[in-house]
Amino acid sequence: MELKVTVININADKSHEILDKCDILKEYSQFICAVRAYADEENPIKKAIDACIEKGILAEYLKRKGSEVRNMLVAEYSYEEDIEVKQEEAKLQGIEQEKADTIHRMLGMGISDLEVIAQATGISIEEVTAIKNAR
After folding, report:
1. Taking the complete model, does pTM exceed 0.90, yes or no?
2. Radius of gyration from C-alpha coordinates of the chain
3. Eight-class DSSP state of 111
4. pLDDT tens digits, one per residue of 12-60
5. N or C: which end of the chain has fewer CB within 10 A?
6. What span, in angstroms and rounded, lies between the C-alpha atoms of 124 and 42?
7. Contact (CB, 8 A) for 112 and 122
8. CA pair distance 94, 117, nearest whole angstrom
9. DSSP 8-class letter at 84
């Protein structure tokens, strides 16, 4: 079995012909554009919802379901932000682990002068001492 899927970019600036044929998709595209336009302001989703209602973009839907839309978009943003934070934390943990491994390798090679280790690794002597004593 083979499945072929056509992906259509419905961003307003791409002006795909489907947006002329489907008002809901067109208005959704305009709504997402509004959310992006307010991204650097305080309460961007609320401002985008209010602006779209005022302009008649998904107005009835946003009047009824505005809080659900806001919660969904905030949750999506929070999830993406959470992923980024976790990736950064993992990266920092990896760096810390690499520092510890390097210090322990040097100690294992018989290099016991902590000042030499600090100079060679660029890690403060206090941090070298803490890592050495943590083992």
Report:
1. no
2. 27
3. -
4. 787 888 888 989 999 999 998 999 898 888 888 889 999 999 999 999 9
5. N
6. 41
7. no
8. 19
9. H
